[in-house]
């Protein structure tokens, strides 16, 4: 496992690719060793549930750490919860909030593969905890054993409490909405930059050979030490991080694009869901699923479109429970206790 120490260590094979991606200031000596900045802490390079893989040079999900928390959650799920609402609240806090936050946010620098790994890990969590591999089926079984109620539509679990749902959060929705907008391979951005940089150098050299030169406007008296010799490519790129771009290659833009977070994809509303949303106009204190589609969060757009038709077919509208029978005050008290 890759660790940071205060003394010089041999250069791992993955360091060069890692340097390219992170833009780190690791200095490589002629002895093929890495000089680590003394300000960095010692030990394994970890960040939440992420651990730096010394072979690939990328951050990866530490499955051993995930497994430890999954075992703890599995033991909790086997105990007898006070209520279904209490169980869902624990699930939302632990799996959706705790796990998702420790997986960190997706960005172009991690690539699309990392989003797929988060999706796979969330699926593994459910399969490890529940015999049937589904939180929905587990809660349905709880309700059936306690209240003898069967055939509950899946959407009623995910719908907000204000519409009579149980407000179960899905860790998959947000990830599926951003997956396609994440750069598939972050190294493509670096390859593109290096290609443009080489073209910029070749163009500048050809212009120099033709006698076309530029003058330093800031210092008109400045002259290069070797006015008849053009810089080598190594010299041209030596100060790429300190100098401004003069061609198409722009290191700052490439760096910013690597750090860029993906944009959530907005699903389109069907006519049936649109009409049902319009029927919510008179209801007060709505949250999540709202009368106006364009004021909704992308997560709730997906929930409404994915499960709306089934809910409407079962209950006649997007209200799972009749407004007069919905004990919002009591539900709120349960959730805060």
Number of domains: 2
What can be said about the biggest beta sheet? 3 strands, antiparallel
Beginning-to-end CA distance, first to last residue: 43 Å
Low-confidence parts: 1-18, 20-32
Q: Provide a count of the helices.
A: 13
Structural class: mainly alpha
How much strand content do the residues show? 5-15%
Which strand order does the major sheet show?
2-4-3
Topology:
Blueprint: E1 3-4, E2 9-10, H1 15-22, E3 27-28, E4 33-35, E5 43-44, E6 46-47, E7 50-52, E8 59-61, H2 63-78, H3 84-102, H4 112-129, H5 135-147, H6 155-158, H7 171-178, H8 187-209, H9 233-237, H10 251-259, H11 271-278, H12 298-315, H13 328-336
Antiparallel strand pairs: 1-5, 2-4, 3-4, 6-7, 7-8
Give a summary of the structure in a few sentences:
By secondary structure, the chain is mainly alpha-helical. 47% of the residues lie in helices and 6% in strands.
Give a written overview of the molecule.
The protein is mainly alpha-helical. It has 13 helices and eight strands. It has helices at residues 15-22, 63-78, 84-102, 112-129, 135-147, 155-158, 171-178, 187-209, 233-237, 251-259, 271-278, 298-315, 328-336, and strands at 3-4, 9-10, 27-28, 33-35, 43-44, 46-47, 50-52, 59-61. α2 runs parallel beside α4 (112-129) and α4 (112-129) runs antiparallel to α7.
Which features characterize this protein?
2 domains; disordered N terminus; 337 residues; mainly alpha; 13 helices; elongated; three-stranded antiparallel β-sheet; 6% strand
């Amino acid at each position: 496992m890759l660790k940071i120490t205060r003394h010089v260590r041999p250069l791992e094979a993955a360091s060069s690719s890692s340097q390219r991606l992170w833009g780190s200031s690791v200095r490589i000596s002629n002895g093929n060793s890495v000089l680590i900045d003394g300000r960095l802490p010692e030990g394994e390079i970890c960040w939440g549930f992420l651990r730096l893989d010394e072979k690939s040079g990328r951050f990866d999900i530490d499955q051993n750490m995930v497994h430890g928390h999954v075992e703890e959650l599995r033991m909790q799920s086997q105990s007898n919860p006070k209520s279904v609402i209490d169980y869902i609240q624990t699930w939302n806090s632990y799996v959706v909030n705790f796990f998702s936050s420790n997986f960190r946010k997706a960005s172009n620098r991690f690539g699309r593969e990392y989003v797929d790994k988060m999706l796979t890990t969330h699926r593994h969590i459910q399969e490890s905890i529940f015999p049937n591999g589904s939180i929905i089926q587990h809660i349905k079984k709880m309700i059936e054993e306690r209240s003898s109620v069967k055939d509950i539509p899946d959407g009623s679990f995910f719908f907000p409490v204000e519409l009579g749902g149980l407000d179960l959060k899905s860790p998959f929705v947000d990830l599926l909405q951003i997956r396609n907008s994440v750069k598939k391979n972050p190294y493509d951005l670096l390859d593109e930059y290096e290609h443009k940089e080489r073209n910029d150098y070749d163009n500048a050299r050809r212009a120099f050979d033709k006698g076309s030169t530029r003058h330093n406007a800031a210092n008109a008296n400045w002259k290069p030490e070797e006015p008849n010799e053009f810089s080598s490519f190594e010299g041209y790129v030596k100060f790429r991080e300190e100098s401004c771009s003069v061609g198409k290659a722009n290191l700052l833009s490439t760096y910013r694009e690597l750090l860029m977070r993906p944009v959530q994809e907005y699903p389109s509303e069907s006519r049936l869901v649109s009409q049902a949303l319009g029927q919510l106009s008179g209801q007060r204190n709505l949250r999540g699923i709202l009368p106006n589609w364009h004021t909704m969060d992308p997560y709730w757009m997906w929930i409404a479109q994915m499960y709306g038709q089934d809910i409407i077919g079962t209950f006649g509208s997007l209200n799972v429970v009749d407004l007069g029978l919905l004990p919002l005050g009591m539900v709120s008290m349960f959730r805060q206790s």
